[in-house]
Amino acid sequence: MSISISPSDRVFVLTGAGISAESGLPTFRASDGLWAGYKVEEICTPEALRRNPALVWDFYSRRRADCARAAPNPAHIALAQLEAQLPGRFFLCTQNVDDLHERAGSHHLVHMHGELAKSRCEHECGRLPVEDHAVYASLDQVPHCACGGRMRPHIVFFGEIPFEMRRIEREISESTLMLVVGTSGSVYPAANFVHWARQAGARTVYIGPEPPLNASAFTHIVEGKAGQVLPGLFTLA
Fold first, then answer.
1. The overall pTM is greater than 0.70
2. What is the DSSP annotation of 23-80?
């Protein structure tokens, strides 16, 4: 199958954990409800951060170490190359918190669930997130903000609002082609994006090893690993 992209098309791409799984990063979602052996409420909620910040930081430090060992795969590279071919007409929204898209060469993107390599103040003091690739061996090593608050992972926890939602909604409304790659269609609000795109009249294409839960909303389903399918999938008119 080939996806044709015309000179007037505006492309919106949504990626999920499946694309990074092909680089060896676990999805952290399992049938038993655990993320890498942890219960979600233990490491990915505001309450968890208040109750046991040491455990939360241990979990995300381990994820940073995993990410540092991973490398972009052909799917990340194919999307970066597509962006380069569509200046001003390409937007990437990822649910992933790793930096594999950036390392592959993507520039015009947002991380709606946060970024693993950044930290921010645990208080809403207004200071911007800072780059932080450190792997902390203990909570004592985690730095503090100038306001005195301890830094926290720049991650959207369950119960918190995803980042850049207004910008995402605007980009979807202006798109004519939505590509969804490696996401199960079970996490909201991202699972609704394809419905919003269809309402705006866009073509919608899913790429992944199996159909997502919201498969009925797509005009095309392309089954297969993204790293094998995405390279060579697009034809630019």
1. yes
2. TT------TTSEETTEEHHHHSSHHHHHH-HHHHHHHHHHHHHHHHH----HHHHHHH
